[in-house]
Amino acid sequence: MTVKNIVEQGAPQARPASKKISWTWLGLTPFFIFTFLFLLYPASTLGVRSFQDSRTHVFTLKYVTQLLHDPYLLGAYWISIKISVITAVGGGIFGFLLAYSAIRGGLPRFMRSSLMTFCGVASNFAGVPLAFAFIALLSPSGELTKVLIALGFNPYHHGFTLYTFWGLSIVYMYFQFPLMVLIISPAIDGLRREWVEAAENLGASPAQYWRYVAFPILLPAILGAVVLLFGNSFGAFATAQALTGGQINLVTIVIGSQLRGDILSDPGLGYALALGMVVIMAFAIIARALLQQRTERWLR
Amino acid sequence: MNLTTVKKHGGKIWAWFWMILGILYFFLPLIATFLFSLRAKLNVLSFTAYQHVFNDSNFVYNFSYSVLWGVLTIIVGVLIFVPTAYLIRLKLPQFRIPVEFITMLPFVIPAIVYVFSLVRTFSQPPLLIVDSPVLLVAAYTVLSMPYMYSAIDTGLRAIDVRTLTEAGQSLGAGWGTILFRIILPNIRVAILSGAFLSFAIVIGELILAQYLVKPAFAPYMTYLIQQKAYEPAAMAIISFALTWAAMGVIQFIGRGSGGGEQSQIAGGH
Questions:
Q1: A132 and B232 in contact by Cβ < 8 A?
Q2: ipTM
Q3: What pTM was computed for the model?
Q4: Average pLDDT per run of 10 along chain A, which is 300 residues long?
Q5: Please, which residues 191-210 of chain B have a Cβ atom closer than 8 Å to chain A?
Q6: What structural domains and CATH numbers belong to chain B?
Q7: Where along chain A do its domains lie?
Q8: CB contact under 8 A, A238 and B207
Q9: Long-range CB pairs of A114-119, under 8 A, 24+ apart, other chains included
Q10: Superfamily holding A57-298
């Protein structure tokens, strides 16, 4: 008899050792039931309906084909992507500069906490109230327009209107740059002060410090945040709808009109358009996840 | 000129420059809206529009419903996400990635698309609840999930979940007691920050209430913009002031307990 066997047969135990079956995972069932019922299942029907004829319910590729060939629909994607890229990059740069100024710019400490509060509010200040605020500011009879006209410069005589692409970009920036401040602040906090000193001791100029130390460290975080900003404006609907009344062909607005049942609308096409958005966002999120991994390696 | 002096002088001027630019961008639209809202009477500045808004029974009706939806959303969110995040942190780390993935999904699916998939799914038997407020609250909960969940998770990260749980267990506390009388009070700042963000989302959210045909603040304001000029401006200012007050409360409660600022940042994803 080997030692092992003796141990296994051993003295009778006081209690039979119960096989430990863990039931703790049951605690997650409310979460999974809830998200399956109200998120995963409805969202999955999206994929199905994109390949189903709205009337006959038979399998069809016509929506996807139409999507890939209709210049009007491709144009809608293009405008949405364009406005999202512009406001994500613009908001990203401005938000970064603002966050860096507040955290490392040598400003009074209260500036930082007020900035965070402002940004918490502003990043959620979207939709109808936001559109209205900019109408009050920059519409032809807006307050700032009046001031500018009094100063002898009428922006509406120089090709500016609030209700087109660039106007909408300016409005989107209002919720984009605060979001950037909120997301990027932890990464800026992660820049150690010793690194500046070390660089300086080794004779680096400020430009060299940024080029070779700070920028490479922050880059993945910045890019990751910009991807998030992209998604933030890509899915926006209410602001554009309220501001332009649906005149700008953003994908979300086209989807809205397809699904709402206007004339010439086809829900199947709306779902296919939505599926296209999800695909684009999925690419953006995957890119973000990859970049995030690189950031976190540095921020330990 | 070395780095430190650049930081002290040149850097500071730029820091102020960007800060002032940010403050202008932030406040100019609000000031304009405020000025506009004061113009309800010809040639005088007055609070007439605000009087109209507060005397308007439709405003009170719709706004109270928005507040109700907001409170229900927060309660449902806390009841579902606190136990989930707690269990994952304590016992089931292997579920972290799938659960976090699911909580981020509402970010990927545009709200306009989401609401239509809801209407389609729940307007046929056996799931005929499209007219029920249950669906609206569930949808709000889903929309605020990325914020709520990450705020709660950040809060849990800041406390020692394991020690608190074991201390509770050795004093004979059951799971309910541990969750709601030990863990919950310890992450109240994080929950508050998630709660206020959820509240802000519910108040500002237009599409869900509009397409599920329920009384709420944002659809009413959209309707009013087509009818009137000054009252919507006053309403925008009121909704903004309320959101800001909520954020101020987060900061105030978060002060001293440390995690406040942090959890707000996490909420802002």
A1: yes
A2: 0.80
A3: 0.78
A4: 52 57 78 91 84 80 85 91 94 93 83 80 77 87 87 83 88 91 82 85 86 82 84 86 83 82 73 87 79 61
A5: 197, 200-201, 204-207
A6: 51-267 (1.10.3720.10)
A7: 57-298
A8: yes
A9: A115/A181, A115/B19, A115/B22, A116/A181, A116/A182, A116/A185, A116/B251, A116/B261, A116/B264, A116/B265, A117/B244, A117/B247, A117/B248, A117/B250, A117/B251, A118/A178, A118/B26, A119/A178, A119/A179, A119/A181, A119/A182, A119/B268
A10: MetI-like (1.10.3720.10)
